[in-house]
Amino acid sequence: DSHFTLRFSELNDRAKKVHKVIAEVGIGNAPVIKEYGDWVFLNNLRLYFRSIKIIEKNKDDLQKIFFLVSEMDMAVALSSHLSTVSYFCWSTDPKKKELILTDAFHPLLLDPKPISLSLKGRGAFVSGKNGSGKSTLLRTVGINHACARSFGFCYANSAVLGNSLVYSSMR
Prior knowledge:
alpha+beta; three-stranded antiparallel sheet; 51% helix; two-stranded antiparallel sheet; 5 helices
């Protein structure tokens, strides 16, 4: 995605400078010379304290890089996951409080049965016999609401989730 590429290129030069200073090895890489330099001249301690100062000085840039990498990791994981589900949609967010799911399903069920639900500014009372799907309905609504709020998508053909909270009580 060009969004990530642009953000990485902005931080690239600063990251290279920080890496160069932190990656210094002191006297040399030969095993005996390096240990001797660390023991006699305390090179490893000097490098450690120098690195701490550089990291502290460049903390903002390093945090930006770490957050950017985590965003990219999330985007890759999410797109990989969504490629495995049969269908999904991007949820819309109207100004009024409503919750409309069309052919929604729970992604963790082996053979999910789609459900449709429309609540416009009101709640719902769900009752029925044991094993009739009450808990599955609540979990399906909950996971779709959480995914819509967190990532912007739902496991449904269409979804409208207004700015409202979802409460459930299983008694």
